[in-house]
């Protein structure tokens, strides 16, 4: 039976693909107050603004490709049972070939009912040729189509399945996340005592560590190369 690896990824995973993080000085929130484009209150106040903001992000996302780090994460499936838990809303892990991806904060390429975000009957997956939503477009239940994004202040419905996966992991890998955004940052607490934990990030990270963590202080691609070498020993 293959060992189980769970990989938790954050914004640093996609930086090498050309996607800015939300918290960089010149990041994606520039000129767009979080309260206006990433909260339920912002959606209620101006759904046209929010719809157009995510249309813009989709156009940016379709213009980028997975980087070597994404591809190396996908390649782990040759030897391991791999689950990727990502805080990112892009689909670069899937594009790179990862077969099991849990999106904690939603998926940029999907839209949903604004009446019931989790009702899968009204989920729609957008394509490169049809990645924009005309403001005012309705879902099948008659409510406005909204981005399938977990807005700030909303619950994170996939945190339970993610925690279960982490609890079953033989190896836990963290890539490109500050480990300060909850509830994702708390997932490390679900690891079984004594399992190897690897943290790939060029910057110092406070991981709320209760056991030894091997910190590979590199970017996603170079860090994944080193990780694979360590795993192959």
What would your notes on this structure say?
The protein is α/β, with parallel strands linked by helices and 233 residues long. The chain has helices spanning 34-37, 40-45, 47-62, 68-75, 92-96, 159-167, 220-232, and strands spanning 4-9, 81-86, 101-103, 106-113, 124-125, 145-149, 171-175, 197-200, 214-216. Helix 4 packs parallel to helix 7. 39% of the residues are buried.
Query: What's the gyration radius in Å?
Result: 18 Å
Low-confidence sequence ranges: 23-27
Number of helices: 7
Which bin fits the share of residues in helices?
A: 25-40%
- Biggest sheet layout: 6 strands, parallel
Q: Walk across the major sheet and give the strand order.
A: 3-2-1-7-8-9
Overall geometric form: elongated
Instruction: State the total count of DSSP E strands.
Output: 9
Class per helix and strand makeup: alpha/beta
- Sheet-strand content, in percent, reads 15-25%
Instruction: Give the distance, in angstroms, between the N- and C-terminal Cα atoms.
Output: 19 Å
Query: What is the succession of H and E elements?
Result: EHHHHEHEEEEHEEEH
User: What's the average pLDDT?
Assistant: 89
